[in-house]
């Protein structure tokens, strides 16, 4: 059943249709929350909050955008609120949960048999994580959405309600700040070289 049909049924009080929407999107919401929050416990909390908000505000969803875009916008906002409430600095992991919620490291190359390469890769990942952490919130969220979550400019534009030109310029500025951060720390910033 398509999202539009499920949304229509859920709006009319069909709990089974709502449960199908949750089942369809819970892994994506969790994965996005994990990328923002950096811990499984926080990601679970944020995911629960997302679906509570979806349940409460589904009747206000006007369906001008797709359900997935509306859901992603809620997820980003819930995570931003969670980061504000959480004490201390947020950490952004480079370990990414897959669809089975198993965690894997997003390797750039196979370094299993070269300890010095493995050490360098670990250090680069740590520096990238710290560099992303050091970005202002609006740059941090947009670089996560584009370079880690892999969203298109159009998806980011709809999710954040920004013009595509603004999205592109923020991504460019975020990458430039991250590049400068890595250079200042003695790294060659190849990991966030633009493919656009």
Features:
mainly alpha; Rna Polymerase Sigma Factor, Chain: A; Arc Repressor Mutant, subunit A; 8 helices; elongated
Radius of gyration over all CA atoms, rounded: 18 Å
Q: Overall 3D geometry?
A: elongated
N-to-C span? 34 Å
The main sheet comes to: 2 strands, antiparallel
Structural class: mainly alpha
The overall pLDDT, averaged over residues, is 79
CATH topology of the largest domain: Rna Polymerase Sigma Factor, Chain: A
How helix-rich are the residues, as a percent range? 55-70%
Q: What's the architecture of the largest domain, going by CATH?
A: Orthogonal Bundle
Low-confidence stretches: 103-113
Please list the strands of the largest sheet in the order they lie side by side. 1-2
Percent of sequence in beta strands: under 5%
Number of domains: 2
The DSSP helix count reads 8
CATH class of the largest domain: Mainly Alpha
Order of helices and strands: HHHHEEHHHH
Q: What is the assigned CATH homologous superfamily of the largest domain?
A: RNA polymerase sigma factor, region 2, helix turn helix motif
- How many strand segments? 2
Multimer state: single chain
Walk me through the topology:
Blueprint: H1 3-11, H2 15-37, H3 40-57, H4 67-85, E1 95-97, E2 103-105, H5 115-134, H6 137-148, H7 153-160, H8 164-184
Antiparallel strand pairs: 1-2
Helix pairs in contact: 1-2, 2-3, 2-4, 3-4, 4-7, 5-8, 6-8, 7-8
Could you explain the architecture of this structure?
- With 196 residues, this protein is mainly α.
- It has 2 domains: 3-85, Rna Polymerase Sigma Factor, Chain: A, CATH 1.10.1740; 111-184, Arc Repressor Mutant, subunit A, CATH 1.10.10.
- Helix content is 66%, strand content 3%.
- It is built from 8 helices and 2 strands.
- The protein has helices spanning 3-11, 15-37, 40-57, 67-85, 115-134, 137-148, 153-160, 164-184, and strands at 95-97, 103-105.
- α6 packs across α8 (164-184).
- It is elongated and about 60 Å long.
- 26% of the residues are buried.
- The model is unreliable at 103-113 (pLDDT under 50).
């Amino acid at each position: 059943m398509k999202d539009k049909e499920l949304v229509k049924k859920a709006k009319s009080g069909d709990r089974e249709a709502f449960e199908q929407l949750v089942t369809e999107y819970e892994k994506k919401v969790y994965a996005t929350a994990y990328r923002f929050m950096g811990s499984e416990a926080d990601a679970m909390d944020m995911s629960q909050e997302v679906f509570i908000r979806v349940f409460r505000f589904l009747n206000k969803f006007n369906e001008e955008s797709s359900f997935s875009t509306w859901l992603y916008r809620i997820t980003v906002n819930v995570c931003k609120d969670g980061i504000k409430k959480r004490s201390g600095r947020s950490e952004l992991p480079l370990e990414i949960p897959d669809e089975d919620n198993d965690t894997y490291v997003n390797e750039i190359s196979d370094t299993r048999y070269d300890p010095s390469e493995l050490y360098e890769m670990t250090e680069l990942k740590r520096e990238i994580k710290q560099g992303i952490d050091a970005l202002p919130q609006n740059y941090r969220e947009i670089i996560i959405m584009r370079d880690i979550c892999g969203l298109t400019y159009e998806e980011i534009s709809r999710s954040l309600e920004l013009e595509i030109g603004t999205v592109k310029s923020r991504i460019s500025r975020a990458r430039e700040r991250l590049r400068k951060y890595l250079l200042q720390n003695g790294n060659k910033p190849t990991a966030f070289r633009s493919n656009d």
